UniProtKB/TrEMBL annotation:
Gene Ontology BP annotations: tRNA methylation; wybutosine biosynthetic process
Superkingdom of source: Eukaryota
GO MF annotations in UniProt: tRNA 4-demethylwyosine alpha-amino-alpha-carboxypropyltransferase activity; tRNA methyltransferase activity
Sequence ranges of Polar residues compositional bias: 1-11
GO cellular component terms listed in the entry, alphabetical order: cytoplasm
Substrates-to-products reaction catalysed: 4-demethylwyosine(37) in tRNA(Phe) + S-adenosyl-L-methionine = 4-demethyl-7-[(3S)-3-amino-3-carboxypropyl]wyosine(37) in tRNA(Phe) + S-methyl-5'-thioadenosine + H(+)
Transmembrane portions of the chain: 423-448
Species lineage: Eukaryota, Metazoa, Spiralia, Lophotrochozoa, Mollusca
Disordered: annotated segments: 1-29
EC number, UniProt record: 2.5.1.114
PANTHER family in alphabetical order: TRNA METHYLTRANSFERASE, TRNA WYBUTOSINE-SYNTHESIZING PROTEIN 2 HOMOLOG
Full protein name: tRNA(Phe) (4-demethylwyosine(37)-C(7)) aminocarboxypropyltransferase
Length: 449
């Protein structure tokens, strides 16, 4: 789009009297803004000053854009120019993804690989030091084997030395990692998260970067006078925030994956908190521990229900907090939620918070599902409290429901903060107060007489 400034003056003559009209020097920028507002401007090229006061302004090359420009600026000449690339073009095409797609496009053509397989080129990845982990569905087709040194090309574009591919977590009971190495030796990495050092082997241990919000939440608590039981410690995802930032007096960390146990012990030592942590090796359901816990962390998904009985058993007789992790599906709102015949009389459901990023219609269904799951969980835990700690009456109350992340379409990873308190303790306090009042009244009466 080339145009003379004189022609531009005639074309915009009616706008010159408007208080917001552009000055003569700003005509190109003004026209650019008009084009941008209509989605017609080609931001991959620069504006260029031509001879005789003409300016070349790049427009998109599709037929509709050309026709709209012709109608809006009939006095402007449309012509083809070789224009220099803009900064935005260089920035956009200098990203790792742009480099990767560009190099692979040439190789795909060279080795006769279908264009349809471009969907297997990863758009995101995890970086851990010099190791990059690409998504599980990346480069799965056997056709990619035609490209020699494919992994070296990918590693060069992503600026890493080691390359690995995600895989679903093993259903072996200990949630073993099935990440496979594609390039380089060994999967040992060190990840720094909120000042905490986590060292582990990505091919043997799980590490979820999506749990960062929950770890930050724990880090903001004051647990300096509390004993914590972490029933699913892993490499220390939550154990370490309790010790390093929440300053827990002591943490009992339970784990049965041998690789995670080795990483956990190393991480406790590396972060200087091993003296305040007791590691319990084996099945946490068989944990031999008296009721000492002020908080019990149940950080296992899709469900931590297998540990609820243990959590109740180790919970202090003075009461405490259970942090119950679970995946809640949108369809939960249509399920028949059995409560084992337990009463919900002492269940106090609280408000359910959800993430604003979820679209409104889905948001309501997920809100209902989370609310139902919370009430059902409270009923089940109350039943366990009465069954296992039957010498006292208990009440349970939702203190908070945290949305950790969207785990999958229509599934949320949530954490229920469940306050469990013995009712008897409240009754004793009330009785003591009543007795004191009666004694005072009697003494005053006798004195008066």
């Amino acid at each position: 789009m080339a145009q003379k400034l004189e022609q531009q003056t005639n074309h915009l003559g009616k706008l010159m009297h408007h208080p917001n009209a552009p000055s003569r020097a700003n005509y190109p920028n003004y026209n650019r803004k008009q084009l941008e507002d209509r989605g017609l401007f080609d931001d991959t090229h620069k504006l260029v000053l031509l001879d005789e006061g003409r300016i070349a302004i790049p427009i998109k090359q599709d037929r509709d854009s050309v026709e709209v420009v012709r109608q809006l600026w009939p006095d402007c000449t449309q012509a083809r120019f070789v224009l220099p690339a803009s900064k935005k073009f260089h920035t956009r095409n200098n990203t790792p993804f742009a480099k990767l797609t560009s190099e692979l496009a040439n190789l795909m053509q060279q080795y006769s690989i279908s264009e349809d397989l471009k969907q297997e080129i990863p758009k995101k990845w995890e970086r851990h030091e010099d190791l990059v982990i690409i998504p599980a569905m990346s480069f799965l087709s056997e056709d990619w084997d035609r490209i020699p040194y494919l992994w070296e090309v990918v590693a060069r574009c992503l600026s890493c030395r080691r390359l690995a591919r995600h895989a679903p977590v093993a259903s072996d009971g200990v949630r073993s990692s099935q990440v496979s190495m594609l390039l380089g030796e060994g999967g040992q990495v060190t990840h720094i998260d909120n000042g905490i050092s986590y060292s582990y082997d990505v091919t043997k241990c799980m590490f979820s970067t999506g749990n960062v919000t929950e770890k930050l939440r724990i880090a903001g608590w004051d647990c300096s006078k509390e004993t914590i039981v972490d029933l699913y410690a892993g490499i220390g995802y939550f154990t370490l925030p309790y010790l390093v930032h929440a300053r827990a007096a002591h943490v009992h960390a339970c784990e049965w994956n041998p690789h995670a146990l080795a990483a956990l012990r190393q991480n406790l030592q590396d972060n200087g908190v091993s003296d305040r942590c007791t590691v319990h090796e084996g099945d946490s359901r068989l944990l031999n521990l008296p009721p000492v816990a002020d908080r019990v962390n149940l950080g296992l998904i899709p469900s931590s229900e297998g540990g609820w009985s243990t959590a109740v058993r180790v919970l202090s007789w003075n009461g405490g907090m259970l942090h119950i992790h679970s995946n809640v599906e949108e369809s939960y709102s249509t399920l028949d939620t059995d409560t084992n015949g337990s009463s919900t009389e002492n269940v106090e459901p609280g408000a359910v918070e959800t993430v604003s990023a979820i679209k409104c219609s889905r948001k309501e269904r997920l809100r209902e599902a989370c609310s139902l799951w919370s009430v059902n969980t409270q009923s089940r835990v109350l039943f366990l409290l009465h069954t296992i700690k039957g010498s006292k009456q208990w009440s349970v109350r939702q203190a908070h429901l945290e949305i950790v992340k969207s785990y999958a379409p229509h599934i949320l990873h949530v954490v229920l903060d469940l306050s469990c308190q013995p009712i008897a303790a409240v009754v004793v306090v009330v009785v003591v107060v009543v007795v004191v009042v009666v004694v005072v009244v009697v003494v005053v009466t006798f004195s008066y007489v």
